[in-house]
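Structure, all four chains, one model.
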Amino acid sequence: MIIYYFYVKLITNIKIYKGYLKLIPKIKPKSERKKSLDDYIVKKHLKSTTQRDIIFDQFFNYLGQHVTVDELYESVKRQYSRIGYATIYRTLKLFKECGLAHERNFGDGRAKYEPVKFDGEHHDHLICLGCEKIIEFANNEIESCSLRVARLNKFDVINHKLELYGYCDSCSVNNKRAAG
Amino acid sequence: MIIYYFYVKLITNIKIYKGYLKLIPKIKPKSERKKSLDDYIVKKHLKSTTQRDIIFDQFFNYLGQHVTVDELYESVKRQYSRIGYATIYRTLKLFKECGLAHERNFGDGRAKYEPVKFDGEHHDHLICLGCEKIIEFANNEIESCSLRVARLNKFDVINHKLELYGYCDSCSVNNKRAAG
DNA sequence: CTTGATGCAAAGCTTTTGCATCTGC
DNA sequence: GCAGATGCAAAAGCTTTGCATCAAG
């Protein structure tokens, strides 16, 4: 039992949820992400380059959760000044293809990219209209409602997105102050 | 009681839902929509023009639920050949401002516009990745879950969007045939 | 030495804007 | 006649692409 517990701890986190043990997959370590990319590069007969390594490093190790192309470009430029936008775009496309990154669009016309935390991960977003802060959340109940609605419509759901737009704690306090 | 029933019928539809009477606001009739627009035009010291009338008519009376700017442009052009894209964009912006239309973006880079059915209406979308069909739905449970999540994060939600991407009945049948 | 990757500039797309002209009111 | 509306073309902003050159395997 204890040995099993430690084995499970290796690949997941354990949480008590409504009296049940819930297994939450562990976030991919850096090395595993790099391996995914390298494997994909070999499999598809692509090439490993300095630029790709630097973009990888900046995207997965130094930048935050929701990054614009501009932010990544500026960040990479500090390490490798000859970098071009096209390479950033092409490399992000590569990350998407091998399942390491997701592209998001929150309606301001510029795509945001986020590292995928573990295989098959899904989460949704709270987006602050004041300070543009983005909070991630996951909610099983919403997922199952959605699937039920889909079934009623004979729809085969591949993925979904739920975005809640509003004001975060500090922004709504400021709003009320400004209004009152 | 009967008089009350008829009064309620005037402004809503009545449906039995889990044993309760449920009041569903009536879809705005054409005339009321036109009045909203005209009132807004007067209030804001704007002007009523032929172009606006034709765009209004095409958008609310002849086209479907999810229309691109291109579709609306082509449709209006048949009635008024000198129309320009700028006028379409500016008029749709006007419709949004007076709460008559919503802008949607389902990720293909072109906005889609839909008439608002009644004041404060909200619905979500099932989007078929095969035939691009869009199905609307509303689900109270999802709404309340969302609000609960928001409250947990001390978020003041202004609006939300939920989009389920997948394959509709006929497209998923075709997919399975193609795959098998 | 072959094939893929890169950087640059140009092009693509959707949407917005500046401006001369037109038209409600 | 004045303020707002229109049409056109140009610009803006993000993303993709063509092409000569570079570099990995």
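The CA atoms of residues 128 and 169 of chain A lie 9 Å apart.
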